[in-house]
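Example for tutorial group B:
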C-alpha cells in the first residue's frame, strides 16, 4: 500500500490508517452505485442512440468467450478482408469476456466491468491525490470524482469509458506511489495499462512527466529518453499479439468528415502536407458550427451531453488556472489540466464533437483532472482553511445538482424513443434467417445483433463490389436500405441485386421509408 508523500502540503495520515480510508472510498463508491441501481435499470440492455456502440462491445466479447477469436461481432464491410477485425484495443473486450466466463451472459453481467471500474477508479484518484497532497486533499479529489454525474451514468452501460478510466486512474496512482527511481523506470510500462484499453491512454504521459518535473527531474535529456522509451514500448504493444487484428482507421475525418466503414474497395487518399493547415482549420470551423448552431438548437442539453461537456470545460479551466499560478511549486497540478486541454484541442481539430462524442472522449481525463484540482490551494500550507465550514452549502448545492443531473442522464439511458420500439418491431417482422448475413442501417442492425446473437450482421455496404466480398464469406439473407440513405452512403437505385429481389417496399419507421431485399 502506498504511503504519503512527506512533501505534501497537509499533514499525511499514519500508514496504518490509509487502508481504512481506501475502504471508506470503496464503500462510498459502492453505495452510490447501489443507490442509483434501480434508477438505471441494470436488468435490461439500453442500446438506443447514443449508446448503441454497446452492441459492438457485447457481441465481440461474446464471440471471444465462445470461440476464442477476438473479432468484431458486428461486421464493418470496409474491413471484410481483415481477419478478426475490430475497431478498438482489446482491454474492454477482455473485461467483458472475463465477466461472461465467470458469471455467464446477462444484461447485469455486461455491466459488471463498468461497475467495478467505477470503484477502482475512485480508489486510484484517492490514492494519487493523497500521495501528492495529503489525506484531506485526497478526499477533495475523490469527492470531485463522485460529483461528476456522467461517470456514474456510464457505469451503468457496457460502453468502454469506465474500464479505460479505471486503467488510467490505477496507472496514475501506481506511478504516484512509487519512489523516484522506480517512477523513471516504470513510466513506459504503466502507460501500457490504459493504452490496451484505448490508444489515447498514452496521453497520461503528460501528468506523469509533470510529477517527475515536480521532483526535480526536469533534465531534457532524461525526459527525452523516457518519452522515446514510451513510444517504442507502446508501438510494440500496438503491433504485437495483444493488438493483432485491430484495424487502423485512416485519419480522414479532417478531409472527408468521416471514416470509411462501408467500402472495402476504396483506398484512403493521403492529404498533402501543404493542405493540412487549411483542412484542420476547416474541421475546427465545422465543429464549432455544428455544436453551437445545430446541436444546441435542435436537441436538449442532456440529449447531447452538452451539460456534461460544459462542466468538464469549466473544471478544466479551474485546473489550468490553478496550475499556471502554481506552475513552479507544483507542476503536477498543471499536468492534469494539460492532459485535459490537449484532448480538447485534438477533438476540435481532428475529430467530431456532435452528440455525445466530445464528452465521451474527454471522460478518461477525469482522474488526472480530479487529482490536479485536489491540489488547488484552499488556505496556507499545512493548515486547514479557516472558511472550511462556509464550503458546506457549496458542497450541498453541488451534491443536489449532481443528483438532478444523474436523474436526467438515467432518463436518457433508460427511456428509448418510441421509434426504437417501432424499428425493432420492423426488424423482427422481416423474418430474417439468422443463419445468413443481415445488413441493415446502424442502430437497427446493432440491437438485432445483440438480441439474436450469434447472427452475422453488417452495415449496408457502399457498393456492389463490397457486397460481393461479403457474399464470398457469408450467404446474404436480408438487406434493408433507406430511401433517404439514412446512416450510410448507399443509393439503392444504383444497386442491381439479382440474388436479392425486393421483398417489401415502403416499410416505415423513425419517419423514414425502407426497402427490404431478401433471399427467399
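The residue assignment follows.
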Amino acid at each position: 500500500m502506498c504511503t504519503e508523500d512527506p512533501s505534501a502540503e497537509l499533514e499525511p495520515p499514519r500508514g496504518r490508517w490509509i487502508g481504512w480510508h481506501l475502504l471508506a472510498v470503496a464503500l462510498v463508491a459502492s453505495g452510490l452505485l447501489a443507490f442509483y441501481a434501480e434508477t438505471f435499470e441494470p436488468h435490461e440492455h439500453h442500446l438506443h442512440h447514443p449508446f448503441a456502440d454497446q452492441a459492438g462491445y457485447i457481441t465481440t466479447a461474446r464471440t471471444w468467450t465462445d470461440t476464442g477469436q477476438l473479432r468484431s461481432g458486428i461486421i464493418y464491410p470496409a474491413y471484410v478482408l481483415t481477419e478478426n477485425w475490430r475497431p478498438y484495443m482489446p482491454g474492454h473486450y477482455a473485461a467483458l469476456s472475463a465477466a461472461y466466463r465467470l458469471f455467464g451472459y446477462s444484461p447485469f453481467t455486461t455491466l459488471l466491468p463498468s461497475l467495478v471500474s467505477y470503484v477502482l477508479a475512485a480508489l486510484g484518484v484517492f490514492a494519487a491525490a493523497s500521495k501528492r497532497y495529503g489525506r484531506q486533499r485526497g478526499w477533495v479529489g475523490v469527492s470531485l470524482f463522485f460529483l461528476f454525474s456522467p461517470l456514474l451514468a456510464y457505469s451503468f452501460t457496457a460502453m468502454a469509458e469506465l474500464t479505460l478510466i479505471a486503467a488510467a486512474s490505477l496507472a496514475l496512482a501506481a506511478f504516484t506511489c512509487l519512489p523516484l527511481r522506480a517512477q523513471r523506470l516504470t513510466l513506459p510500462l504503466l502507460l501500457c495499462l490504459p493504452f490496451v484499453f484505448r490508444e489515447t491512454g498514452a496521453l497520461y504521459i503528460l501528468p506523469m512527466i509533470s510529477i517527475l518535473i515536480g521532483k526535480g527531474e526536469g533534465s531534457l535529456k532524461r525526459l527525452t529518453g523516457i518519452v522515446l522509451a514510451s513510444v517504442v514500448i507502446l508501438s510494440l504493444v500496438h503491433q504485437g499479439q495483444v493488438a493483432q487484428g485491430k484495424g487502423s482507421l485512416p485519419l480522414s475525418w479532417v478531409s472527408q468528415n468521416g471514416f470509411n466503414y462501408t467500402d472495402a474497395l476504396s483506398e484512403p487518399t493521403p492529404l498533402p502536407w501543404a493542405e493540412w493547415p487549411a483542412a484542420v482549420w476547416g474541421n475546427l470551423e465545422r465543429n464549432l458550427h455544428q455544436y453551437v448552431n445545430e446541436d444546441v438548437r435542435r436537441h436538449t442539453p442532456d440529449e447531447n451531453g452538452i451539460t456534461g461537456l460544459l462542466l468538464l470545460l469549466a473544471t478544466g479551466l479551474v485546473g489550468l488556472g490553478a496550475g499556471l499560478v502554481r506552475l513552479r511549486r507544483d507542476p503536477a497540478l498543471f499536468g492534469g489540466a494539460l492532459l485535459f486541454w490537449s484532448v480538447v484541442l485534438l477533438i476540435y481539430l481532428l475529430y467530431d464533437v456532435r452528440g455525445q462524442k466530445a464528452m465521451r472522449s474527454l471522460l478518461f481525463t477525469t482522474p488526472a483532472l480530479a487529482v490536479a484540482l485536489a491540489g488547488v490551494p484552499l488556505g496556507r500550507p499545512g493548515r486547514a482553511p479557516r472558511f472550511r465550514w462556509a464550503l458546506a452549502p457549496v458542497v450541498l448545492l453541488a451534491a443536489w445538482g449532481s443528483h438532478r443531473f444523474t436523474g436526467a442522464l438515467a432518463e436518457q439511458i433508460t427511456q428509448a424513443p418510441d421509434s426504437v420500439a417501432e424499428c425493432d418491431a420492423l426488424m423482427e417482422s422481416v423474418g430474417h434467417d439468422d443463419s445468413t448475413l443481415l445488413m441493415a442501417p446502424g442502430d437497427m442492425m446493432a440491437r438485432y445483433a445483440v438480441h439474436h446473437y450469434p447472427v452475422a450482421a453488417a452495415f449496408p455496404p457502399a457498393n456492389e463490389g463490397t457486397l460481393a466480398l461479403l457474399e464470398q464469406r457469408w450467404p446474404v439473407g436480408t438487406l434493408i436500405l433507406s430511401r433517404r440513405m439514412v446512416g450510410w452512403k448507399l443509393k439503392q437505385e444504383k444497386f442491381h441485386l439479382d440474388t436479392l429481389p425486393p421483398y417489401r417496399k415502403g416499410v416505415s419507421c423513425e419517419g423514414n421509408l425502407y426497402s427490404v431485399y431478401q433471399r427467399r
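DSSP finds 21 helices and six strands in the chain. Compare this with the pattern of hydrophobic and polar residues in the output above.
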